[in-house]
Amino acid sequence: MSVTPEHVEQIYREADCLHTQEQVEAAIVRMAGEITVRLKEANPLVLCVMTGAVIPMGQLLTHLAFPLQIDYVHATRYCGETCGGALNWLARPRMAVQDRVVLVVDDILDEGVTLKAILDDLRAQGAREVYSAVLVEKEHDRKNGLKADFVGLVVEDRYVFGYGMDYKDYLRNAPGIFAVKGM
Q1: Residue 7, H or E segment
Q2: Which residue range(s) make up the domain with 119?
Q3: CATH number of the domain that 74 lies in?
Q4: Which of 26, 164, 165, 172 has the most other CB atoms within 10 Å of its CB?
């Protein structure tokens, strides 16, 4: 079924706001403070997990006032759908990670399959230390023990969008964290 702009507008209108733009921005500032304490002397390579982490990463970077380099990875299980499938690598980091401290910034920690694969790949490439930061972590027991080092907000186990997270490749630009009605 193709998604129409009218359908997307209806999803947005009916969605439940879980966190306002102000709450999200405050969480990003808090997370940046925690990251600064831990990594300010590490000269880290900060990796954005495309595409969902573009907005949180951009805002996070403006609050990290220490030397760092940025790059990105692109691995996905969703490909515009609401359920994940097999992991598909679209891009690995261009910068060398060997002997580097690496911070991976992602939009959401749900079951953690994609994030775990990225973290494992970086360790296999010889990263000295690997940290993870997520804007949103879902509350449930399906994470297989994976924990993010830095978490912005916690949400209930629903399908969420906004601040980089999508609904069928739309609504990444929604100004807050929203849950699809009935999902």
Answers
A1: helix 5-14
A2: 22-156
A3: 3.40.50.2020
A4: 164
